[in-house]
Design brief:
It contains 13 helices and nine strands. 38% of the residues lie in helices and 11% in strands. Strands 5-3-1-6-7-9-8 form a seven-stranded mixed sheet, sandwiched between helices. It has a two-stranded parallel sheet with strand order 2-4. It is of the alpha/beta class. Helix 2 packs across helix 5 and helix 2 runs parallel beside helix 13. It starts with a helix and ends with a helix. Strand 8 and strand 9 form a beta hairpin.
């Protein structure tokens, strides 16, 4: 009886908008699983009210190796295994696909921020599908409303870029004056370098936005655009070099799990939570859940 009452009291209604395609399966599905396992309800939103699909390359790993275009060899994965979703994320994604809320999302233009307790902005890097999400005026307005109402907001990887582009009436970002992390240029550059080798026919697969002529390397990276939206460049927080787990946190290969937070790096600024990449997702979602639960009556 008491447990049922506690569940009802602490449950929050979370908005999780995604694009029609190419969102990151780890960042969305693991976050969904962590939150729902803790009793929270997640409502998905897509541009057209139809179920979205993740980036298939990040789900399977097929398409990241030199031989990916050869039918007989394409299932042999080397870079694909290293860079794609791990078993935890793939299993969470398979479970999420069966969730009625995922199969029947609301439309972006039907979102009423006042009906939700929190907002989670997942990421993904493939320009083909992610730009509609990152450039959505509707989602930027909705994100601003959550910040204005001081409701919990969580953003990971490119999701932080959407938050950075969401602005107050004076033109400042909602992240102006906040501490945040996001996908660091070091990891984005490393992924891009690997894609130049393994996915040579689509070298900018990992670069959602690339530099124009005359712009320095990394100018259009997630880290640099987010940093330009902040009050002080020092407000962009990356793993400190004296962190005892610095190597694993910055390797781009070590990922956190349901029982191991050591490879993860998450930044919390009051009711705003941010993280860098899929390897932080378990810790990111748990931290967000703790923010939600601390605010529950």
């Amino acid at each position: 009886m008491a447990e049922g009452f506690l569940s009802k009291v602490t449950m929050s209604l979370i908005l999780l908008p995604i694009p029609s395609r190419d969102f990151d399966p780890s960042e969305v599905a693991v976050s969904w699983k962590v939150l729902t396992q803790r009793g929270h309800q997640v409502v998905f939103a897509t541009p057209d009210g139809k179920a979205g699909t993740c980036d298939p390359i990040m789900l399977s790993g097929i398409g990241l190796d030199l031989w990916s275009g050869i039918p007989v060899l394409r299932n042999i994965r080397v870079l694909g295994l290293l860079l794609s979703a791990n078993a935890d994320a793939r299993n969470a994604y398979a479970e999420m696909l069966r969730d009625p809320a995922f199969k029947s999302p609301i439309c972006w233009d039907q979102i009423a921020s006042g009906g939700f307790d929190g907002l989670l902005l997942g990421g993904g890097h493939r320009a083909r599908g992610m730009r509609e999400y990152l450039e959505s005026i509707v989602l930027q307005r909705v994100t601003t409303e959550f910040f204005a109402d001081e409701k919990p907001v969580a953003a990971i990887c490119h999701g932080v870029l959407l938050a950075a582009r969401s602005k107050w009436v004076d033109g400042r970002s909602v992240l102006h004056g906040r501490k945040t992390t996001a996908l660091p240029w070091a990891l984005e550059r490393k992924g891009s370098a690997l894609a130049h080798v393994g996915r040579f026919w689509d070298r900018n697969y990992y670069r959602t936005y690339t530099e124009a002529a005359g712009q320095p390397a990394g100018y259009m990276s997630v880290q640099q655009e987010v940093t330009r939206a902040l009050a002080d460049p020092a407000d962009f927080i990356d793993v400190p070099e004296n962190d005892m787990d610095f190597k694993s946190k910055t390797s781009g290969t070590a990922r956190d799990t349901a029982t191991n937070d050591r490879p993860a790096f998450v930044v919390r600024d009051e009711n705003y939570v941010s993280a860098r990449w899929p390897g932080d997702t378990h810790s990111f979602a748990r931290t967000f859940a703790e923010v939600l639960e601390a605010r529950a009556p």
